[in-house]
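re: that chain from earlier
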Amino acid sequence: MKDDHDLGQSQPSSVIMYVDFVTSSGPGQPAQATATELIDKERQLLVQASGKFGGRGSRLTSDREAEVGLKGWLRGTAPKERAMRQSSYTLLVFKSPLEAVRCAVEFQRALQKHNRAVPRDLELHVGVGIHTGEFEIKGEEVIGEALGIVSRIWHLGGLGGVCITSEVEKQIHNSLEEPTVNLGARLEGIANHLDVYMLDLTGKRAEKQAEELSRTRVAVLPFVSISSDPQDEFFADGLTEELIDRLAQVRELEVIARTSVMVFKKKEKRVADIGRELKAGSLVEGSVRKAGNKIRVTAQLVDANTEGHLWSSRYDKDLEDIFAVQGDIARQVVEALRVTLLPNEKKVIQKEATKNMRAYEFYLKGHFHWNERTETSVRKGIEYLKKAIEEDPDFAAAYSDLADCYVMATDYAMMKGEEARSFVNEYARMALERDPTLSQPHAALAAMHERNYDWADAEREFKLAIELNPNNVMAHHWYALDCYFRGKTELALREWDKARQLDPLSLVVNSAYGTGLALSGREQEGIAMLRGVLEIDESFPVSHRNLGFAYVSAGNIEEAAKEAATLEALESGIGYKGHAGWIFAKAGRREDAHRILAELQERSRAQYVDPAVIAMIHAGLGNAAEAFEWLNSAVENKSAGVPYVTFAPAFDTLRSDPRYKRIMNKAGLE
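^ sequence. v structure.
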């Protein structure tokens, strides 16, 4: 840090850092000589930090003493204690706001390190203010509006803090690990009113200043099974799922979906931390104990902002009363949140899905498996769900899940589109006959209208599904895909964003949203989101596939090939195999692409293989004639892969060909 003569006489548009050194004399405080020594030590540490970031400084010192009340920012041994404040300040000038802020952070960190190693009476405490503007030096005086501003803000963050004006904050936003917190302090009496921000160096201020979470955004945390039988884990999960479904029917509530709350199963976290992570102001938690034909359920509603209890209850019931218990918990939660229930909503949250506990257990297992979204897991889900309806032929939710399974079966190229449509239509309509209030069967029917190229009917069913249940994550997600198929990119991204708000930790939704971003010209943003999914579950095949697509789109062929290899190792399903084959082709690994192509063509002799999947590999290998031949077959057979052709990067090389437009016209997509 150079002396003041190096600053010159006029400093237009400079970045100014104002450092106020403070020591106190009073009961238990250091003597005058020691106070001076402490200020010198503070200056030494500042010199080290400023030299690293190119700061030029002035030893402008005003040693002043004044009686100051101890209100937290100047420490003493008692709240009413008074002390003499000895202070001097130093002015530093930097070339950029970022250099100034980084210097201030390093300086305060150095002081924190010093303070941890010394007795309290030898601790060092300073305040820092940073602003960008003009000032002037005249002799021993510094004048100018900029100096007046920094001298007014340094103390707002307390000793040990770093305060910056909004002029600085907008230039360094997102460039530091330390977040900024708006202190809500506006500086009046200057040409432009300025907000004051503080850098959060501890995490505490950010937590304190955080915006209050909405009470009507609700997360039902996984209920804890305290039964002796490990098999009863499914029962606790079922209680959680049912409560989510019931509360999701209430229009005034925004309810976090199952996949996001299940992340917190068996994790020890404070309610406040979970609330902030999910942005949910109200959390339902509890436990369930099952013994023979008896159950004990405890439940409570907690305010995530205060961690205070809003409601709690305990139920000792017979097993067959479980749905009545679920209905009562949902009703009590709604009443505690002071939300008005419409008559139809009250009826829905009190309904009983089934009285057959064996059917219910099969349903829970089926629901769990098909949501894993692999070919094997979907088949296993179908098996359990069919057992559920064998036990209870009137189990509407089981029929609804079966419809979803067959939607997945078409997407994963497991069966012909016509065959799958027949199953979906049958099971969705059987679900609605038994419970017309269900939302998801309409989403499944919409997906089948897409496969039949009835785009207007598909949109109508998607909108009906969302109208019946605005919290239906799957409906928002599938409708986003529908919009993307039809070139309505911005609407698709908005729907994915809505789905993500409802299910922020969903692997499927985040994977789709990330892909939509990456293929819409926002490659790096999309890739970052897809990588984030794999940080949650590195074995999730959908994200490896989509990340491979994104890398190809971004021109990162080497990373794309790695994702294809990982995908093939994780999943042997036809759809995933085909996607890996195309990525290999684009990455120049033609032998691997030809190997997969030959395998799929061989498999097509014995089982159904979506022609669009084979067309994809041919397109990647540059075999345009073969690609169009298989695409024609896909359109004629109304395969599930056809809508994805509209945006899949695999077909970019074919889009200018008249044959492509003719094929898309047949599908009603051009």
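Residues 217-349 form a domain with the Rossmann fold fold (CATH 3.40.50.10610).
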